Amino acid sequence: MNKKRCRAFLLVLIILLTLLTFLPVLPAKAALQESSAEAELIMSIIDFINKNFAGDVDNVKLIQGAIRGMVESLGDPYSEYLTPEELKEFQTEARGSFGGIGIVITSRDNFATIVSVIDDSPAAKAGMMPGDRIVEIDGKDVRNLSISEIASRLRGEVGSKVSVGIQREDKMLKFVMTREIITINPVVFSILEKGIGYIRISEFNENTAVNVKKALDFFEKNNVQGIILDLRNNPGGILQQAVKVAEYFIPKGPIVKVVFKNGKTIVYNSKSEPLPFKLVVLVNGGSASASEIVAGAIKDRKSGIIMGEKTFGKATVQQIIDFGPFGGIKITVGRYVTPEGVDINKSGISPDIEVKQTMEDGGGKPDLQLERALEILRDMMNRKMDNAA
Question: For the segment 88-126, what is each residue's pLDDT rounded down to a tens digit?
Fold first, then answer.
């Protein structure tokens, strides 16, 4: 890319990024003046480097470095620069099919931390668990890499091997896995026993709401009266999908409030009259973001019982901006609060009924949280029948 095109793109880029920063608090004219001044300063630095640096200068890499530096200076673990390759991988993952090991990771305490492990994936078969911290990939320390860079190294050609070193509490463990095609099926459902249905949502992608609707239609035809909605180890996903799912369980009124930098608030409301299912929602420390929107709304609107363990505590909203050959950025543009105005960022949602699941649970052993949810639903349904009599 020639120097003139790079300069033109950089000018537009800096104005855009500055507007994202200043427009909510400054009049438009003042914001544009601020952005123009900053753009001229950065372009003068690039001109100086091109004229005086003793080696070759790649202007594309120079601009990519400028974008990365601006985003990293925010100090926000959920805002990051994505190279063109990382952006492509991000989009591939969003489509729900890629070569990998089957984990979802996020940044926590400056570590790439596993939020959830996809069922029947190489990671699940190897024994990786939510809460594990990734410190090494193929013998190389990755603690200073971004989440996107780590995810990129974990993905690869189907059939290829990858070695992953993790920190689990005070232990260091290593897993060698063969990459497989990872297809994300966000919703599974079944009837556990007469009158009680079960829905598990692994993430909120573009297909989540429509598949939850299929589950509810199936339950209605089969006389299901109570539902267990399992959001455990659900890392989140698309805000609008969480709102659509919440509408299936919450009557008319607020679901979530998104607050932006200038104080502007968008309230997402339910416009539905849901079917009268009795509802228990299972959550744990791996339930984050969009899954916390659903759980928080159900709790505040008293549409069901929240059971399990305290959720992850991620209540921020990110936006993706694509800069073509220069990559893109994922930037935090707002935060959300529950219908009652509770900010659960970092603190999480406390369950109405706490039921702890130890590391020894699962793997063929009883699911204590699920068993307790069944007990609660049976009791709720019995009381309903007594009232009807």
Answer: 877 776 666 689 999 989 898 889 999 989 888 999 999
Contact 272, 251 (CB under 8 A): yes
Lowest mean pLDDT across 41-45, 160-164, 282-286: 41-45
Task: Supply φ then ψ for residue 237, to 5 degrees.
Answer: 140, -135
Q: Could you say which of 289, 291, 299, 303 is catalytic?
A: 289
Helix or strand or coil: residue 355? coil
pLDDT tens, residue by residue, 309-352: 999 999 999 988 888 888 999 999 999 999 999 999 999 999 99
Q: From residue 212, give the alpha-carbon distance in Å to each of 233, 240, 339.
A: 17, 14, 22
Say which of 244, 270, 300, 303 is annotated catalytic: 300
The answer to whether residue 289 is catalytic is yes
- Any idea what DSSP says for residue 285? T
Neighbours of 372 (CB within 10 A): 17
Which among 244, 299, 314, 330 is annotated as catalytic?
314
Instruction: Write the DSSP assignment of 221-245 as a string of letters.
Output: HTT--EEEEE-TT---B-HHHHHHH
Q: Is 132 helix (H, G, I), strand (E, B) or coil?
A: coil
Q: Which of 20-29, 32-41, 151-160, 179-188 has the lowest mean pLDDT?
A: 20-29
What are the residue ranges of helices labelled H in 53-104? 59-72, 84-95
* Nearest CA-CA partner of 195 in 383, 378, 379: 378
Nearest to 105 by CA among 145, 139, 73, 72: 145
Any catalytic annotation for residue 352?
no
Active site residue 3: no
List, as one string, the DSSP characters of 153-215.
HH---TT-EEEEEEEETTEEEEEEEE-EEEE---EEEEEEETTEEEEEE--B-TTHHHHHHHH
Residue 258's DSSP bridge partners are 266, 336
- Region class of 197: left (phi > 0), else alpha (psi between -120 and 50), else beta: beta
Pairing of strands 187-193, 80-82: unpaired
pLDDT > 60? residue 299: yes
Please give the helix or strand (H or E) that residue 111 lies within, else none: strand 111-117
Give the whole-angstrom CA distance, residue 14 versus residue 40. 9
Neighbours of 375 (CB within 10 A): 11
